[in-house]
Design a protein that fits this description.
Layout: H1 11-20, E1 39-42, H2 46-59, E2 64-67, E3 83-84, H3 91-105, H4 107-111, E4 118-119, E5 122-126, H5 129-144, E6 150-152, H6 154-160, E7 176-180, E8 184-185, H7 188-201, E9 205-207, E10 212-218, E11 226-232, E12 235-238, E13 241-244, H8 250-256, E14 264-275, E15 283-286, E16 291-295, E17 300-304, H9 319-332, E18 341-351, E19 358-361, E20 367-371, H10 381-394, H11 408-411
Parallel strand pairs: 1-2, 1-13, 2-9, 5-15, 13-20
Antiparallel strand pairs: 3-8, 4-8, 5-7, 6-7, 10-11, 11-12, 14-17, 14-18, 15-16, 16-17, 19-20
The structure holds pyrrole-2-carboxylate (PYC).
Residues 81, 83, 85, 292, 304, 375-376, 422 line the site of pyrrole-2-carboxylate.
């Protein structure tokens, strides 16, 4: 089914608004909160909105509410570094993130909204033998799955990133890198706005400022129960299907339904500089130096590191983080020393024991989860949304996410992705 965008989004509507100076129309509505929906999705980030969009577009399920205690894209979707890649370590991870990359590549045309996907190539540097071995391992797993990844040496790295110090006189000389040409970046807020607009055009209700305060579970059958709906700060909503698409608060939301999740939440900080002329094409990651950097289309450098080493729900930025980050970035590209950092922020990462997500059913019938996204959630939004929508629409768990079920932690079937989870944790 194609999204039916109202007249106000037509090319002529855009020209008219540009010329007349009339107020720009709202991109999605603010509908009345119904007391009942077929599906309630908790979390209006990329995962929740993608789920709502694919439910409507692929399965014709439109009596759907997306509720969020804040605003669209104000959680993890607005607090990440928008890096896209599929160069994972496990066959499950590679196939899953590759599907997401495919969906991201075509998203502007699917949503009729420019999400500014920018294919840049992705370099993961190796500074010692053991990380070089992991890069080779990843390259082999990637190639078997048909993913374009290979290990390259310092000369090729220097060609791709002339600013990089690839000499052997540095403290952490670069021995090689995993090069993944399809990787890139995207405009994170355009992604959530595009999904929100498209879901809304099918009739999905997006309710911002609507905090979920409880989840109703009927346990009268003597089992672990069946979901009946949610309690919100704006009143109860009944629904036979409730999906937890939150990040940061995933375990607290699931606990409301009596479902325990093996998640520990850590803050992750990031920073952005003033814009400068384009000089850095690929995304550069160093696990050993705990840093990743990319240059946006506007010219800013976006930096991140590993998660803060303590569990917390705090989203405060710290000077320690910035000092350590700057030291590590300058090891790689000393000539950045005069650049000025403009802003810092932090997000929350729900870390699972194996660094893979948890997607699918729970012991409470009708209560589904799309959680545990650690530091890799933004890039996964489209494929996760597509998979959860398919689970709801068909009643079957898609093969692509079967390995990410909650039961794996009881059965000992872990999907260990630590070696590909961006930086050391
Ligand atoms: O998984 O590519 C990644 C990533 C980048 C920043 C945090 N995670």
């Amino acid at each position: 089914m194609k999204a039916r965008f109202p007249q106000r989004f037509s090319a002529w509507g855009l020209v008219r608004h540009g010329l007349t100076g009339d107020d720009w129309p709202k991109v999605w509505r603010s509908p009345e909160l119904r007391r009942s929906y077929d599906v309630v999705i908790i979390g209006a980030g990329v995962h929740g909105l993608a789920t709502a969009y694919y439910l409507a577009a692929r399965h014709g399920i439109t009596n759907v509410a997306v509720v969020d205690r804040g605003y669209v894209g104000g959680g993890g979707s607005g607090r990440n570094t928008a890096i896209l890649r599929s160069n994972y370590l496990t066959p499950e991870g590679v196939a899953f993130y590759d599907r997401s990359l495919q969906l991201y590549r075509n998203l502007s045309s699917e949503l009729n909204f420019n999400v500014m996907f920018s294919r840049r190539g992705h370099l993961t540097l190796a500074h010692n033998d053991s990380s070089l071995r992991t890069m080779r391992w990843r390259a082999e797993v990637n190639k078997v799955a048909g993913i374009d990844s290979e290990v390259i040496g310092p000369d090729e790295i220097k060609r791709l990133v002339p600013m990089m110090d690839t000499s052997d006189r540095t403290r952490y000389p670069i021995l090689g890198a995993l090069y993944h040409p399809p990787g890139g970046i995207i405009r994170h807020d355009a992604v959530v706005w595009g999904y929100a607009r498209a879901a809304d055009s099918f009739g999905v209700h997006i309710h911002q400022n609507t905090e979920v305060t409880g989840i109703d579970v009927d346990v009268s059958g003597g089992t672990t129960g069946r979901v009946r709906g949610v309690q919100t700060a704006r009143g109860p909503i009944s629904a036979p299907v409730v999906v937890n698409c939150t990040a940061g608060w995933a375990s607290l939301i699931s606990a409301m339904a009596g479902v325990g999740l093996p998640i520990i939440t850590h803050p992750l900080q990031a920073a952005v500089t003033e814009p400068v002329k384009m000089f850095l094409d690929p995304v550069v990651v160093s696990g050993t130096l705990h840093v990743y950097v990319s240059q946006t289309d506007r010219g800013e450098l976006v930096f991140g590191a590993s998660v803060d080493p303590f569990a917390s729900y705090s989203m405060r930025s710290s000077l320690e983080f910035l000092e350590e980050l700057a030291g590590h970035v300058l090891q790689l590209m000393p000539s950045l020393a005069t650049m000025r950092v403009l802003r810092q922020w932090a997000g929350l990462c729900d870390m699972t024991p194996d660094y893979s997500p948890i997607i699918g059913v729970t012991p409470v019938e009708g209560f589904l989860v799309d959680v545990g996204w650690g530091t890799y959630g933004f890039k996964a939004g489209p494929a996760a949304g597509e998979a959860v929508a398919s689970l709801i629409g068909t009643g079957r768990v898609p093969e692509l996410v079967a390995g990410f079920d909650l039961a794996r932690f009881d059965d000992g079937r872990l999907v260990g992705e630590k070696g590909a989870a961006a930086v050391g944790h």
